Amino acid sequence: MGGCELRRAPFGAAPDGSAVELYTLTNGAGMSADVSTYGGLVVALRVPDRAGRIGDVVLGYDALAGYLADNSPYLGALVGRYANRIARGELLVDGAWYALERNDGEHHLHGGRGGFHTRLWSARMLQDGRRAGVALHRESPDGEEGYPGNLSVTVTFTVSDENELGIDYTATTDRATVCNLSHHGYFNLDAGARDDVLGHVLTLNAGRFTPVGEGLIPTGELRSVRGTPMDFTSPTPVGARITSGDEQLALGRGYDHNWVLEREGAGLFLAARVSGPLLGRFMEVLTTEPGLQFYSGNFLDGTITGKGGRVYGKRAGLCLESQHYPDSPHQPSFPSTLLRPHETYRSTTVYRFGVEP
Known about the structure:
The chain has 357 residues and is mainly β. The protein is 3% helix and 41% strand. A hairpin with a 5-residue loop joins strand 1 (5-13) and strand 2. The mean pLDDT is 96.
């Protein structure tokens, strides 16, 4: 079986009293991931460092109760129906306007307060010669959080012998709607040995980004990163220019922007590489998506106590969220997120781990 194993255990109760389960996916090299049926949460992700020591590289909580709290900032969550922001919570589909919840000031964020990160998913265990996985499924009803159409969604998490966490998304609808799903993991490759990720070294295979205005809504421009603090085309520490005073960084209190990936054609594309020099771990992000949101944990403010009693302060973790661009429904020049009946939404992202000398 390639050394991959799959276990299931109880993980508490959802707000309606329904049982929540935790699936642990393990390979033969010491990597493992815990995935919850509540919110599609990646509760833990354990990978070896350069000395072979296993450490958990994602922020989160020791118990389900932490994820149920109102102030949980999408730690490890599956976000949808629409990852990122939609301006003014307004959605126009085929000439009809739909009102979405305004849960981020005047704007709609990550599917609303009742988005996919708050929902209970059914689960099916998967295992083959080189992978262990769990397929999560739910039917999102017409009108949920304001979105049109009944959306049938399956998200499959796998761990492979190649030290990869794979996430495959599929969705179908019975009415025209929008769909843009993502994983909102907060990574700290130093696994608690450092309290922030400013020393992490990041490369983004993107020569342009989508600048934002107030409320972090894209202006519609695709701007070159050359000569700006947004340039990660060569390996650069996260903290090297984060306090430079750049207008875009001031708006986001740091990095909270979408990068336009320099992909050609379909299939998996190496979007990013990030390393934690302290313990030698690195992570590569491969995706079929056209964009990647790099968020440097700017709004973590020390009010959250996570695993092992650790307090998550500013920039305790970073997010690399594969996606279509923010506010695409209002930006005709952006890749479309429209999904129609008889079409299938498909997206894949792989987080691949290794070590440097």
